[in-house]
TrEMBL record:
It comes from Bacillus swezeyi. GO terms for cellular component: plasma membrane. Its main location: membrane. This is RDD domain-containing protein. Keywords: Cell membrane, Membrane, Transmembrane, Transmembrane helix. Signal peptide: none annotated. The keyword rRNA-binding does not apply. Residues 16-167 form the RDD domain. InterPro entries: Pra-immunoreactive, RDD. The chain crosses the membrane at residues 31-51, 71-96, 135-154. It is a multi-pass membrane protein.
Amino acid sequence: MELSKHETAPSAGSEYAGIGSRFLASLLDGIILGIPLYIIWAVCATLMIMGDLEVVRILEKNPDYVTNQEFFFVLVGFLKVMGILASISFIVYLLYFTLMESSKWQATLGKKIMGIQVVEAEGERLSFGRAAGRFLARSFLSPILLIGYILAFFTEKRQALHDLLAGTIVIKK
């Protein structure tokens, strides 16, 4: 049985999550997703590049005799593979954060381990759309000069830029 939005609202005494616990949760999520994705990247990149017989022929050739055209061919192939893998990784991260933060847990695995959860400013559970917006804001805006994260030190509810834009808060459970 799934809880309604009103049943997941934090109690009046809920505390806002500290910057340290939010950082550690983010670090844990990075490890949880990063290690498997790194292995998948390495295997897929190797298979995709080595699966192209023309690339293998060029790579086996003496480097002194590789033409600029052959080098460009290999480089473009490599960039295509990296673009595909980066897109897949972005989708995996988007789905992980969005599905986990809009679930009844209201937290990713890292946040769950640290005992914190993400809620709407009114204390209700995030919708899928709001969780996706929060992720996108965090991915593209907050890393710029780390200003998005630095804001959390100066806001009353310890909200980073992505929290302010999405109308969310992170609380201790």
